[in-house]
Amino acid sequence: MSIPMETITAETELERAGFGWRAGVGGVRALACYPLEREGFPNAFSTRGGGVSPFPEAALNLAGFDQDAAENIRENRRRFVSTLGGAWKLAACWQVHGSDVLVVRDPEDPRIESERCDALATNLTGVLLGVKTADCVPVLLGDARTGACAAVHAGWRGTLAEIVVRALAMMRDEFGTEARDVRAAVGPAALGCCYEVGREVIEAFREKFKDADTLFTPTADVRALVDLHEANRRQLVAAGVAAGRVHLLPLCTMCRTDLFFSYRNDRKLYGRTGRLLSVVGRRG
Ligand SMILES: [Zn+2]
Which of 106, 143, 156, 202 is least enclosed by beta carbons within 10 angstroms? Predict the structure, then answer.
C-alpha cells in the first residue's frame, strides 16, 4: 500500500519544524518538539484520539471537569502522560485568559488546579507543567542553563498581554534565566489560515503592536484572519530568544479536527469540545 503524497509532505514538514510523533498506552499519539527534548526537557502536545471521553467518542479529553466525568479525564491524562515514559506529577492551573504566571514549588499542592493563571514555571524535576487549549496557542519554554521551564496559554488575549514575555521575565526573576538560553516550542493552534477575529481584536492589536497589520489578512468588512503563532514568535524573538530556537508546529487545530480539538469547529459539530494538553518537564 502506498502512502498518500500529502501525508509524506506533512510528515517532512513536521520533521523540518523539529517535531515528531510519540505513542502511549491505548493508542494515544502525541507530538513532541525534539530540539527542546534534547536540551533536557521532555514535552508533548496531545491529540484527540485514543481516550475514553464521549467527545464524540474515544476522545482524549484532558480537562473540563464540568463537561466530562472526572474518571474519564484522569484515565485520559494517565494515557497521555504515558507517551513521555517515567513517573511525572502533572501541574495544570485554572486558566482565565489572563497573563499571570504561577511558579510551581510544590507539585503535590492540590490548590494548583484551582489557581487562576495562564502560565506555569518551575525548575523542579519530575513535574510536568501543562496548559489546556482548543484553538489557543500553547507555548513551552526550556532553559538548559538553569533547568527552568514554563508552559504558557496564549489565546488572543494572552498574546495581546504578551504572556510569553511575562513567563520569560518570571523565569529570569525566579531562576536567573536569560532569554538567549531559552528554546521554545509553539504547539497546535488555530492558525492564520482559519482564526478570524473582529474589530475589537484588530484594534486592540493595532494599539499595542506597531507591526500588527502584518499579522492580519483581511476577510470581510472589519474582520480578519490573525496569525497568533507569528505574533508569539515575534514576542519571543524581541525578548531575546534566538529565532532559530523558536519551533512552530505547522498544524492548525481548525483545519485538522481529525487530529485536534477545536473550540470553534467542535462546538459547531458536536455542541461541545474537549481540551488538549501541552506539557513540558525537566529531566531528573
Ligand atoms: Zn487552519
Answer: 106
Ligand 1 centroid from CA 242, angstroms: 26
Q: 31 is written with which cell numbers?
A: 507530538
Distance of CA 190 from the midpoint of ligand 1 (Å): 6
Query: What's the grid cell of residue 181?
Result: 538560553
- CA–CA separation, 111 vs 104, rounded Å? 11
95 CA distance to ligand 1 centroid (A)? 24
Closest to 151 (Cα-Cα) out of 137, 130, 124? 130
Task: Give residue 181 CA to ligand 1 midpoint distance, Å.
Answer: 31
Expressed in angstroms and rounded, the spacing between residue 111 Cα and the centre of ligand 1 is 36
Element (H, E) at 264: helix 263-270
Q: Return the pLDDT at 3.
A: 62
What are the tens digits of pLDDT across the range 102-138? 999 999 999 999 999 999 999 999 999 999 999 999 9
Domain extent listing, the chain: 5-191+227-281
Give backbone dihedrals phi and psi of 158, rounded to 5 degrees, phi first: -65, -35
Radius of gyration of the chain (CA): 18
pLDDT digits (tens, 9 = 90+) for 79-96: 999 999 999 999 999 999
User: What is the homologous superfamily of the domain 5-191+227-281 according to CATH?
Assistant: CNF1/YfiH-like putative cysteine hydrolases (3.60.140.10)
Distance 93 CA to ligand 1 centre (A): 27
User: Taking the model in full, what pTM does it have?
Assistant: 0.96
Distance 255 CA to ligand 1 centre (A): 4
Neighbours of ion ligand 1 (CB under 5 A): 193-194, 252, 254-255
